């Protein structure tokens, strides 16, 4: 009888925590639904509903957030417990499977599925930006500004003179596609489902969406450009980035940038949509998201901050060296995201909590309870 009562109480607490969590996320759900509705309306207004990618992302989200990342979270939490407290500490398993932890995981997973609707909406809007802007009119201006900013030099050539090793270039290819994706969406998954990040959850999620919407849709639409690797296609100038194009085409392997670059251009030329489709260079969402993660996770310690800053510079350099972006694309992204982070941290009181504050306050109680 007592076991039944305890089970009933456990599930009641889980439900209670889930309800509070969903209530706390109501603004995020409302924005995602409004953003999705706007994307559907925009594509229909332009007569291109076929460029929607909502179904693509919902299917991918199921395998990523319901299968792959939960396994990664369990492994991470297990290792974290081992190194911080140890498996033999009394009460630690009750903490891991407490109603609060379970509710965070469940409500967070539902929110992440909603984020796939958000990502599909972002890509759908990105697909029609060239229709709205009449192509890519700003590549020449951005390339000219890049050369002026670097004292008459092309940033690609400056970087290649320093980073010319085939082994380094092979790593940069893999890192820019695979590792960046794992870190960016792994960080999102951890912040949304883990109670340890509860204090920064709303701020991180809001700024995460800000990077995609403000940088990836709004600013991209205002200064629409395709990027150096597509420069000849959108300007008719075959010479300016011929050396860069030849360099990128010479790269081999499954993560070769030319594979994905050709995939994107073929979709654009044929007026089709697909997973990750849409072309825009300014500003760099790759750099913007990594800047966001450095600002948040760099607050853990100086070591995290230094490692994060170095990694951000690698991503920024890779975006230029692999032909995706002009250097200014990354500079602007980093500045815009940093400014947005500082603004909400300083002037929005409910977004000023430090990383892990809630989790750190609850830890002594759990440890003492197990003594």
UniProtKB/TrEMBL annotation:
The keyword Transmembrane helix applies. The chain crosses the membrane at residues 28-46, 58-82, 102-122, 174-193, 205-231, 275-296, 303-324, 330-348. GO terms for cellular component: membrane. This is Inositolphosphotransferase Aur1/Ipt1 domain-containing protein. Keywords: Membrane, Transmembrane, Transmembrane helix. The keyword Glycoprotein does not apply. It comes from Allorhizobium borbori. InterPro entries: Aur1/Ipt1 (IPR026841). Residues 141-342 form the Inositolphosphotransferase Aur1/Ipt1 domain. It comes from the Bacteria.
């Amino acid at each position: 009888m007592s076991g039944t009562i305890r089970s009933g109480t456990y599930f009641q607490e889980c439900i209670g925590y889930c309800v509070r969590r969903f209530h706390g996320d109501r603004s995020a759900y409302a924005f995602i639904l409004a953003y999705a509705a706007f994307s559907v309306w925009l594509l229909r207004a332009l007569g291109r509903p076929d460029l929607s990618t909502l179904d693509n992302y919902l299917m991918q989200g199921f395998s990523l957030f319901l299968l792959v990342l939960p396994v990664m979270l369990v492994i991470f939490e297990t290792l974290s417990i081992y190194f911080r407290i140890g498996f033999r500490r009394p009460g630690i398993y009750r903490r891991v499977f407490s109603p609060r932890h379970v509710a965070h995981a469940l409500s967070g997973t539902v929110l992440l599925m909603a984020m796939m609707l958000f990502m599909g909406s972002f890509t759908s809007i990105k697909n029609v930006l060239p229709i709205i802007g009449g192509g890519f009119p700003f590549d020449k201006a951005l390339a000219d500004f890049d050369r002026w900013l670097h004292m008459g030099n092309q940033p690609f050539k400056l970087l290649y003179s320093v980073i010319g090793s085939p082994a380094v270039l092979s790593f940069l290819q893999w890192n820019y596609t695979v590792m960046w994706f794992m870190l960016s969406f792994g960080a999102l998954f951890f912040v949304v489902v883990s109670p340890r990040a509860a204090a920064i959850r709303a701020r991180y999620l809001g700024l995460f969406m800000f990077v995609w919407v403000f940088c990836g849709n709004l600013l991209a639409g205002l200064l629409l450009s395709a990027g150096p690797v597509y420069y000849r296609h959108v300007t008719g100038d075959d010479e300016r980035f011929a050396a860069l194009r030849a360099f990128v085409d010479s790269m081999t392997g499954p993560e070769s940038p030319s594979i994905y670059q050709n995939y994107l251009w073929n979709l654009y030329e044929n007026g089709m949509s697909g997973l990750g489709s849409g072309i825009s260079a300014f500003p760099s969402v790759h750099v913007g998201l990594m800047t966001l993660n450095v600002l948040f996770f760099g607050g853990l310690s100086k070591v995290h901050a230094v490692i994060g800053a170095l990694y951000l510079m690698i991503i920024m350099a890779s975006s230029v060296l692999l032909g995706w972006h002009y250097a200014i694309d990354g500079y602007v992204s980093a500045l815009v995201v940093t400014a947005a982070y500082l603004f909400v941290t300083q002037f929005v009181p409910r977004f000023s909590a430090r990383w892990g504050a809630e989790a750190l306050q609850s830890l002594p109680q759990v440890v003492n309870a197990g003594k």
